[in-house]
Amino acid sequence: MTKTRNTTTTRAAWTGALAVVLVLSSGAVASARPEIEATPSMGPCRLMKTPTETIQHFSKRVIRCAAARWTVPGGAAKGLCIARRESGLVPSARSATGRYLGLYQHSAADWPRRYAAWTVPAWHLRTSALSGRTNAVVTFRMVHSAGGWAPAGWRVRGC
Fold this sequence. Notes:
- The protein has 6 helices and 2 strands, in the order αααββααα.
- It has a two-stranded antiparallel ribbon with strand order 1-2.
- By secondary structure, the protein is mainly α.
- Strand 1 and strand 2 (106-107) form a beta hairpin.
């Protein structure tokens, strides 16, 4: 009787542990293909950076994803050009004074309001303007809604 109970208890423990691992891994691993979103409830453009990918290349993929989701004049090409000129495609970029932040150099003072207006809580986006994904999503939603880059506040020469 004791051996059967121990075997049953051991099986139950292993089954429970396996269930926990499966549940945790299903949310933690987005996809075998990094360009595919994990699930719609996790929000737009939730991409995985590959180990050998530069931050600039990863930023390009995030921007292309946002451009595919929200159409803007000039599409991804214009969005990439502007981000390249604003931040060098580096999400953690800050202006010398710290007044402007991220891929699209949003005003630090305006960021909290923009974040609140252009994100959805269910997307679980980081609140920081220095998150490339969040910065791109907020930017593309703003530009899409405004009908263009200039009306949304971006007047970048050469793009």
